[in-house]
Write a structure and sequence with these properties.
Blueprint: H1 5-27, H2 33-40, H3 44-47, H4 49-61, H5 65-71, H6 74-93, H7 98-126, H8 129-160, H9 165-168, H10 171-184, H11 198-221, H12 226-248, H13 262-292, H14 297-325, H15 327-343, H16 354-369, H17 372-381, H18 388-428, H19 434-464
Helix pairs in contact: 1-7, 1-8, 1-10, 4-7, 4-11, 4-18, 5-18, 6-7, 6-10, 7-18, 8-14, 8-17, 11-12, 11-18, 13-17, 13-18, 13-19, 14-15, 14-16, 15-16, 15-19, 18-19
């Protein structure tokens, strides 16, 4: 379908607005969980399901999006996803009990799970490979700016208003995007009478769902918990069966032949490591700030804000740089910044200043801005157009799994090391108070966990050195 530049701009504005609201919705609750525990009189393990449940629904839906994009039009999918987001937000805003709130959250997740793979596929159809970096960078601004303002916005609402305004405030904006979509959104992709492989859907749901649940539960329940062990084992076995079925199928639900393209496979490995680092830092730094140093959730959110805002504004810039210079110089620059930022928190103490941590986080976010969106562009550019929807679905699935695994691993390292340090400190200082013991153990445990993240950063740098030096062609070839 031939669209004018004006049509493309209007189309992208509507899609980016939907993407921004979807991402903002996902991250608003992160610092509101303790307030919701008090409001509904539930435990930390129970309230965590608002995040875990959202991630599970999102994770099991993503592998099906490639089929949905073949079967339904761009308009149908986008408007449906925004309707799910709208209905879920209304249910959450009106929730009378925790079960109702969780139900609304799950419905929101259905909408959010469709939007990102849809965005990536639309870009592959609308823009040639030499322009995708700039467009991806603009989308990156929306994707990164939403979680940048979410902790501060959420902290303000929780402190001065009712938690219901986290959802009430979103609904009119979602409704406006739905109206704009009906008015301006045009179909981009071509639909086919694709058949849904029910067995593959069941296998992917059980497999990815169990892996996500197992790893997300490991941080709180421990790796020796029977439920954690069984769900991870079942998830891996069923996911392996799913992969074999896809490789043998003539019309797979998720086409794994995307891994035949070396650059896509390479970016997938880097994607795994970067996502683990990014998610782990988002969990670990607030733990250090709140448990180790006694800062409030709002203060922790404000510390993260400058770096995230800089990350968002740099995203369009690095997108244009990718179009000009290619992936390798950007990835190496970004990873050097990440390594410096991890090195700087390997020996954090109770006297490490707030401003030092803010500057360190800004350096980390500058590094991530050189990698996150160019990483998606580099991987998808190497694929032929017919594999674009499968490539974006694989990318999103990788991010979901890596985020859960990275969080679980870093929380495990933190917990083990904090427990070990607490034991040592209690033996060395018998008169130490329980509060100070817990705070010091948390600080030292956080410092040790950052060593693991530094190692992951070096591994990612090694992979980045093998990336092509120039922009990647969309026919599956690359030149350096």
């Amino acid at each position: 379908m031939n669209l004018t530049e004006g049509n493309k701009k209007v189309l992208m504005i509507v899609l980016i607005a939907g993407c921004f609201l979807s991402t903002l919705n996902q991250t608003l609750l992160n610092v509101a969980l303790s307030g919701l525990m008090e409001a509904f009189h539930v435990t930390a393990a129970t309230v965590q399901w608002l995040s875990t449940g959202f991630m599970l629904v999102n994770g099991v839906l993503v592998p099906i999006t490639a089929f949905l994009m073949k079967r339904f039009t761009t308009r149908q999918l986008f408007i449906s996803s925004m309707f799910f987001l709208f209905i879920g937000s209304v249910i959450c805003a009106c929730a009378l009990n925790f079960g109702m709130l969780l139900t609304g959250r799950m419905i929101q997740a259905i909408g959010a799970g469709i939007i990102m793979p849809l965005m990536m596929t639309v870009i592959l159809y609308l823009y040639p490979s030499e322009k995708r970096g700039s467009v991806m960078g603009t989308i990156g601004f929306a994707m990164i700016f939403a979680p940048a303002i979410a902790p501060t916005l959420s902290g303000f609402i929780i402190e001065y208003m009712s938690w219901r305004w986290l959802f009430i405030g979103l609904t009119p904006f979602i409704f406006i995007v739905i109206i704009l979509a009906f008015r301006y959104l045009m179909n981009v992709t071509e639909t086919t009478k694709a058949k849904l492989d029910i067995v593959s859907v069941i296998l992917s749901t059980i497999g990815f769902g169990c892996i996500l649940f197992g790893f997300s539960s490991a941080g709180s329940k421990g790796w020796d918990d029977p439920v954690v062990i069984m769900t991870i084992i079942i998830g891996m076995l069923v996911s392996t069966s799913f992969c074999f079925r896809q490789m043998k199928s003539s019309d797979p639900l998720l086409n794994l032949s995307v891994f035949k393209y070396k650059v896509f496979t390479l970016t997938s490995f880097i994607n795994i490591l970067i996502t683990m680092i990014m998610y782990a830092d988002l969990i670990l730094l607030p733990i250090y700030l709140q448990n180790g140093r006694g800062f409030t959730a709002l203060e922790a959110g404000l510390l993260l804000l400058p770096g995230a805002v800089i990350n968002a504004f740099l995203s369009p810039v690095t997108g244009r740089m990718y179009d000009k210079y290619g992936a390798r110089p950007l990835f190496i620059t970004g990873l050097v910044c990440i390594i410096v930022s991890m090195w700087g928190v390997m020996d954090i103490t109770e006297s490490t200043t707030y401003s030092y941590l803010m500057i360190r986080t800004i350096i980390l976010r500058i590094g991530l801005s050189f990698i996150t969106m160019p990483l998606n562009t580099a991987g998808l550019n190497t694929l032929p157009r017919e594999l674009g929807s499968h490539g974006s679905a694989v990318n999103t699935t990788i991010r979901q799994l890596s985020g859960a695994i990275g969080t679980a691993v870093v929380i495990t390292v933190y917990t083990i090391q904090a427990t070990s340090h607490a034991s040592e400190l209690s033996m060395q200082h018998e008169s130490i108070s329980a509060f100070r013991l817990k705070a010091l153990a948390s600080i030292y445990g956080s410092s040790d966990a950052y060593v693991l993240m530094l190692i992951l950063s070096f591994v990612a740098l090694i992979f980045a050195c093998f990336m092509p030096g120039k922009a990647i062609k969309s026919d599956g070839e690359s030149h350096s």
